[in-house]
């Protein structure tokens, strides 16, 4: 159980009665796609083919169990982007950043247009 996430969600939920028209969302975690190591041990994410981890998203539950558990029973909505983003391992900046350091790849941030645009579409549909 991530006490930080649960604490923030609990506090936000307690504030919502003061703002009856406010909608609050918790965005689930964005996956990192490091292969053959982590960011500081030579990990890479220069895959050029999408869907390396499969081509299906099963929505029986969130892959971000802490976030899903934190919003359960609250008025906070879960914006669940983890599973669909996991399928797009080719969408990271990788070694193609303008400020890229040789031998280091950015496998956390995403190229635009791309995956974050899908997150925005899901958010817009919820509004």
TrEMBL record:
InterPro entries: TBL, TBL_C. Residues 5-125 form the Trichome birefringence-like C-terminal domain. GO terms for cellular component: Golgi apparatus. Signal peptide: none annotated. It holds the Pfam family PC-Esterase. GO terms for molecular function: O-acetyltransferase activity. PANTHER family: PROTEIN TRICHOME BIREFRINGENCE-LIKE 16, PROTEIN TRICHOME BIREFRINGENCE-LIKE 9-RELATED. Belongs to the PC-esterase family. TBL subfamily. This is Trichome birefringence-like C-terminal domain-containing protein. It comes from Aegilops tauschii subsp. strangulata (Goatgrass).
């Amino acid at each position: 159980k991530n006490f930080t996430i649960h604490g923030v969600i609990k506090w936000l939920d307690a504030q919502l009665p003061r703002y009856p028209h406010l909608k609050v969302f918790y965005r689930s975690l964005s996956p990192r796609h490091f292969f053959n190591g982590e960011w500081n041990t030579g990990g890479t994410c220069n895959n050029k083919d999408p869907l390396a981890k499969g081509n299906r998203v099963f929505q029986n539950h969130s892959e971000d169990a802490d976030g899903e558990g934190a919003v359960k029973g609250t008025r906070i909505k879960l914006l669940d982007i983890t599973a669909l983003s996991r399928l797009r391992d080719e969408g990271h900046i990788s070694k193609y950043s303008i400020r890229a350091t040789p031998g280091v790849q950015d496998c956390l941030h995403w190229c635009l247009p791309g995956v974050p645009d899908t997150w925005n579409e899901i958010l817009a549909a919820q509004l």
